[in-house]
Design brief:
Length: 126
């Protein structure tokens, strides 16, 4: 079992930044690829950014590619999502998730992720 706890969400104005953190416990963090996903009201959950166990391979959804960055600190069992130039359309509940993977692999497919956090709300006002 992997327990994931997100933090760092909040209410910001358009153009501002936030840094989300997801702290993991229970299993060896470095055994898992990690992902950030989001779900806006009335919409399906979607992948935002994912990162391999090594940290060397990442994927970011097109709408955030130039604004968001994902990183991980295996020594701290934490994955981060740095969000810059936030837009109202980024408003959503953000979830982190973990999946077993080979060292360099990653996935943006939600159903492949085994463990999920409870989510943190990000609200961007115009």
């Amino acid at each position: 079992q992997v327990l994931l706890v997100e933090s760092g969400g909040g209410l910001v104005q358009a153009g501002e930044s936030l840094r989300l953190s997801c702290a993991a416990s229970g299993r060896t963090f470095s055994d898992y690829a990690m992902g950030w996903f989001r779900q806006a009201p009335g919409k399906e959950r979607e992948a935002v950014a994912v990162i391999s166990r090594s940290g060397g391979n990442t994927y970011r959804e097109d709408s955030v590619k130039d604004r968001f960055a994902i990183s991980r600190d295996n020594a701290k069992s934490t994955v981060y999502l740095e969000m810059n130039s936030l837009k109202p359309e980024d408003t959503a509940v953000y979830y982190c998730a973990a999946k077993r993977s080979d060292y360099y692999g990653y996935s943006y497919l939600l159903w492949e992720y085994e463990y999920w956090g409870q989510g943190t709300q990000v609200t961007v006002s115009s």
